[in-house]
Design goal:
Layout lengths: L2 E7 L3 H12 L4 E5 L15 E3 L10 H18 L4 E2 L3 E5 L14 H12 L4 E4 H7 L11 E5 L3 E3 L1 H14 L3 E4 L5 E5 L2 E6 L2 E10 L5 H5 L3 H4 L1 E12 L4 H4 L3 E5 L7 E4 L8 E5 L6 E2 L10 H12 L6 E15 L6 E4 L6 E5 L6 H17 L17
Parallel strand pairs: 1-2, 1-12, 2-9, 5-14, 12-20
Antiparallel strand pairs: 3-8, 4-8, 5-7, 6-7, 10-11, 11-12, 13-16, 13-17, 13-18, 14-15, 15-16, 19-20
Helix pairs in contact: 1-5, 1-10, 2-10
This protein binds flavin-adenine dinucleotide.
Amino acid sequence: MKIHDVAVVGLGAMGAATLYQLARRGVDVVGIDRFAPPHDQGSSHGDTRITRQAVREGAAYVPLVANSHRIWREIEAELGVSLFEQCGVLIMTSSESPATSHHGMPNFTKNTIRLAQEYGIEHEVLGAPEIRSRFPQFAPVLDNAIGYFEPGGGYVRPEPCIDAQLTLAKRHGAETVTGKVVTELRPDGQNRVISFADGEVAAKKVIVCAGMWSAELLGNPFNQLLRVCRQKLFWFKLAKPSIFLERSPTFILSHGPTDKDLCYGFPPIPGEGSMKVADEQFTVAIDPADLSREIAPEEVEEMFRTQVAGKIDGVTPELVKASVCTYTVTPDFGFIIDRHPGMENVTVVSACSGHGFKHSAAIGEAMAEQHVEGQSRVDLSPFSLKRFGY
Ligand SMILES: Cc1cc2nc3c(=O)[nH]c(=O)nc-3n(C[C@H](O)[C@H](O)[C@H](O)COP(=O)(O)OP(=O)(O)OC[C@H]3O[C@@H](n4cnc5c(N)ncnc54)[C@H](O)[C@@H]3O)c2cc1C
């Protein structure tokens, strides 16, 4: 059997980026996926993902997102595709309780401002009158609202990003195997054999980017650390073509006293006449095999009532489409990028706790640097398993 240098298991956001970056450095790499990416069965679908440079989730993420922005632009130039829409990002707290958390991070707006100041990231701090006049779709903001506007942020398109990186990876010689569920990573001397139902491949090293299925493939300690949380995405019809909504930045809005009082959304994609809005939940964890992909009418009604009505003007309760997605969450809401403590030659890149897409291109680059040069330019130690005692 041919022994590849590297096998990448899972070709979603992290895996596609890793495959591409390894292949363009001349590494003999094979990628395997249980579906045919880009697909809508994992965590990387739904048209848009927010990106912002002032990453309140931690300073360790700041260089990753900057590198990702550079890489999206490089790929756009090479392939002539559109991946990164720099429409700005507006983060607002319009609540009597400004300490609302996002991704488990309290005081999200204020701490984002602090981080932007510290890192010299271009931004504006807005009060309620400025939010009302510049972004009237959020007119119902309270007088004590505070806003952070970052013109360099916006959104990326997850499916085209994955597609583009897989296209380039193949151009650089990567092999891909799709529609195969990897069931085992068996040691074989110095190598690993990656098994699926009707075949296997072998590699000197395996990088697992299996998203919500990571724990089932990797076992301990990942089955102790990772929780898979079902999330819902909604596209509501616009009341009428609205210049304000079509010029909207991406946004994150805390509007009440609890962590549930938070939604985020995107400018309408031109010509679609709808706005994507979502909330998030970290309390109910599921087994990926039991994931319900249906959205009940009560869930649509609840979403509009609690997160849109009276908060965002110009959006109707009429649902255009909806989708289910998952966050794979660690105990501290951070990433895990590290060697598997119990499987030699296996590295894990995943569990991105619901905020990984904006960093994915750079994570792929860092993994390739680690493999080819022995270490990455971005410090990945904050994402190691050591912080959980492994
Ligand atoms: C609703 C929602 C909103 C989000 N919003 C944002 C946002 O605004 N900004 C942001 O930065 N991030 C956001 N995220 C997070 C981001 O999308 C994820 O962190 C990222 O997409 C995860 O990528 P991944 O590669 O880890 O997982 P995935 O993309 O799910 O990839 C995992 C891949 O592994 C394959 N696989 C799994 N097991 C096996 C196996 N045994 N054999 C073969 N193949 C296997 C799967 O088929 C899949 O293709 C959001 C996530 C969700 C769900």
